[in-house]
Amino acid sequence: MQEPTLLLLTALADAPRHGYALILEIAAISGGRVRMRTGTLYGALDRLLQQGLVEVESEEVVDGRARRTYALSDSGREVLAAEAERLRTVASEAERRLAKPRPAPRGAFARLATGRGALGRGLSVQGVFA
Amino acid sequence: MSSWGARKALRLYPARYRSEHGDELAGVYEDTTAGAGPIVRARELADLAGYGLRLRTGLTSGAMPGRLLGLAAPFAAGALATPGLGLLAEMALDVRHGHALALIPHDPRFVLAKVAALGCLLGAVAALFGRWPLARWAVAVGSAAWLAYTVAWIGLFSGYRLSGIVVELALTTAPWMLWSLLLLAAPPDLHRPPSRARTAALLAGAALGGPVLADVMFGPMFFPYRVVLWDVAAPALMALEVLLLVLAVPAARRGRLLPAAGAIAGLPVGLVGLVVAAAGMLGGRPGIALVVGGLVVFGVVVERLWRTPVPELERSAV
């Protein structure tokens, strides 16, 4: 799943929202990194509506302007849950591997790193390669 | 009340979409740009207008043209890599033979050619690694440079309007421009991360489409290669293009878009091959009639494709 789609579905996961609220929510979720523009937002919304992942929750008139509120559909909720599970699996595996002690270097590099190699014994580089 | 700019941008949208969503889009645009500077407003406006143009031309992921261009874009990226690869090989040979000074072009026009080739090569590498925004920018810059280079040469021969040289320059530039337009027009949300299919399409573009572009830049220097290209490879590619055109509509009706996407990706090769064949074998009016006939057949296939229902976009493609 592409990041803008993930952010958009996540922004709708807890409550239905209208267009501008979605732009603000996506900026908040991404820590201000993703600032979705109007045309891009409606391009993504149209695609997700067509795929049945998002639906129109309500239509109202606010300050004389028509405004739609969008919500996550049941299948959108399923797709988002599956993507969240996939990301969780990858993240926990990354954390598990990072928590393991780092293997010590072997061979010539280990001798260099620990000072037991030629350089560590005070020889110059020219001496090593002479 | 929406701004003058927003009203103009909304006029680009299809009437039905504008009547359903116009107020809503204008409202979001006004909220987003409230208190913003001219640069932010201009970028928002360009984005708003851009989506209107995409909807009007069907270049969205929900419409057939957009879907086909999305599938054809990796092939185009691969084809556009070839002049850059050729240029790198040429530069390496210059250095190896001690002609390093040849790397500094004495004529500004050759700077444009090098920017064009290396820009498109960067675009292809970025596309290979799934960095599509960079790929689009690099291809746009590279193609603009190639267009400027061609115009500069045509200007040089302006005294010989429609002379063979001018026609050849225009003809050799056409595949480059068609592939770059194809890549830039593809819906950005269909540019997926790297996958085997995308990589295969990109490599196919470099192998099948690239030689035509390589010939554009290096053809006169490699005459035997040129003979193989136009006497052997081009007819085979044109036969493949005809087969794909025949299969395109029936396959699309069954929800399979690859033959149609292949036919669109191969159009630049087919077009140049057709012109070369028509000029070489028939010449004059019969040659022109053959080219026009070929374009009409392509147009009919495309028109039927556009009327074919779009298969549902798989959920993994979001």
TrEMBL record, chain B:
It comes from the Bacteria. The chain crosses the membrane at residues 68-89, 109-130, 137-156, 162-187, 199-222, 228-249, 261-282, 288-306. Keywords: Membrane, Transmembrane, Transmembrane helix. This is Uncharacterized protein. It comes from Kitasatospora paracochleata. The lineage of its organism: Bacteria, Bacillati, Actinomycetota, Actinomycetes, Kitasatosporales.
